[in-house]
Amino acid sequence: MAEENKFTELKSTLIKASQAATTDATKADSKRDAQGRAYATGRRKESVARVWIKPGSGKIIVNGRDETVYFARPVLRMILRQPLIAANRDGQFDVIVTVNGGGLSGQAGAVRHGISRALVAYEPALRAALKPGGFLTRDPRAVERKKYGRPKARRSFQFSKR
């Protein structure tokens, strides 16, 4: 009987130790700076976005301006929020972004990619929610180069039979 009690005590101690080890491992995996922020870089076309996320009220600041001012079109704002909605974290993180290069559509895609990567850096368990949606994959599509002997990348000069 006394041996059973020792065994159950040992078992409960081992379970508590393994739980503590897993919580320590998840904290070690998350990459946060001294202020508790996670950083990531997102890219799309010619745009590069540097993204910092931290727990907060859900405010998104892009180049020192509010997201509604910088990205006036609702479609672009929807693109920004996709990873947060997919991870069920909308309204839980403040996002600070500096983005440059390319146009507004490419910048919105770069910010989306950066937010996704920053979420995974902050909370590695979210990778399972974001990966199937394709948020962590950099979109490789870019403008095709112009070829010599042609006016554009694929367009040919008008053919004249006579």
Q: Could you explain how this protein is built, in words?
A:
It is a single chain. With 162 residues, the protein is α+β, with helices and mostly antiparallel strands. The chain contains five helices and five strands, in the order H-E-E-E-E-H-H-E-H-H. It has a five-stranded mixed β-sheet with strand order 1-2-5-3-4. A hairpin with a 2-residue loop joins strand 1 and strand 2. Helix 3 runs parallel beside helix 4. The radius of gyration is 24 Å and the shape is elongated. The mean pLDDT is 86.
What is the alpha-carbon Rg in Å?
A: 24 Å
What class would the helix/strand composition place it in? alpha+beta
Largest sheet: 5 strands, mixed
Query: Portion of residues in helices?
Result: 40-55%
Strand order of the largest sheet: 1-2-5-3-4
Which stretches of 5+ consecutive residues score pLDDT under 50?
none
Query: Which descriptor suits the 3D outline?
Result: elongated
Helix tally equals: 5
Total number of beta strands: 5
